[in-house]
UniProtKB/TrEMBL annotation:
InterPro entries: RpiB, RpiB_LacA_LacB, RpiB_LacA_LacB_sf. GO terms for molecular function: ribose-5-phosphate isomerase activity. The gene is rpiB. Its EC number is 5.3.1.6. It comes from Pinibacter soli. Keywords: Isomerase. Belongs to the LacAB/RpiB family. Transmembrane segments: none annotated. This is Ribose 5-phosphate isomerase B. It is an enzyme of class 5 (isomerase).
Amino acid sequence: MSFNLSLPIAIGCDHAGYEYKAALVKWLEEKGYSVKNFGTDSLDSVDYPDFAHPTASSVENGETAFGILLCGSANGVAITANKHQNIRAGLCWENEVASLVRKHNNANMICIPARFVSLDQAKEMIETFINTEFEGGRHANRVGKIACA
């Protein structure tokens, strides 16, 4: 399944991901995508769940095509987003992982560790995430078993 890119792309971060988020919003808009920014919008220290939850909710509710979350390690935002029943947030630190979370896990959010990848790597992973289809097949059965309820 591919993303409905007539919807905006959701993006959120904490203070550690702010500079990348600002650059990525500009880059995505220059590529013609609509972006819905869930903050934060400064380097001031914040609590990542305050931004990860609304970003994930927008994806879960179908208001946005997919989500991008950034923080220092991306673990906090990934853990938070994955608390949402219909979210499959994948932590990606290299391009092959970004491909596999789409192909095998049908991820609808990509979580990027801003302190461990370059901005160019982040862009490459997002491009891959957008352009990679879920393979379905044997993976569909596995993905179907993820939800707890």
